[in-house]
Design a protein that fits this description.
With about 130 residues, the protein is α+β, with helices and mostly antiparallel strands. About 35% of the residues lie in helices and about 20% in strands. It is built from five helices and six strands. The strands form two sheets. The protein has a three-stranded antiparallel beta sheet with strand order 1-5-6. Helix 3 packs across helix 4. It is globular.
Length: about 130
């Protein structure tokens, strides 16, 4: 499964040091999602390295559509983190409400966003993507 994900053409539009890229690397660092903290108000996200990021900031992503093409989307960090932490639709909706997140990932994008962040960070660096 990981091998298949590595072959997908998935690129972040932002630089490899963008909060979205840092979140992806943190997920793959071995500590996983449990080491990432979202503030109760949904406004800041703290990564395992101690860095804190604006969780309300929009993160532009270019996702593989699974059909050989790509799709440009933009969601805030809090929304992305809550999706990854709460894969069930009802869990996710409740988590977003609880944190005051209004920019929830659209239903049709949920699997694409989850696949992007589950993919190996090395496979999703900014190679060839617009800055």
């Amino acid at each position: 499964d990981e091998r298949r994900q590595r072959h997908h053409k998935i690129n972040a539009m932002a630089s490899s040091s963008s909060p979205a890229s840092l979140l992806q690397r943190a997920i793959h660092s071995g500590a996983g999602l449990s080491s990432i903290l979202l503030s109760p108000d949904g406004k800041s996200l703290t990564l395992p390295d101690g860095s804190t990021h604006d969780a309300t900031a929009s993160q532009p992503l270019t996702l593989s559509d699974g059909k050989g093409g790509t799709k440009d989307v933009s969601y805030n960090l809090a929304s992305i983190y809550l999706l990854l932490s709460n894969p069930g639709a009802l869990q996710y909706r409740k988590a977003c409400e609880s944190a005051g997140v209004t920019d929830s990932v659209k239903v049709l994008d949920r699997n694409l966003v989850a696949d992007y962040f589950k993919a190996d960070a090395a496979a999703t660096t900014n190679e060839g993507a617009a800055a």
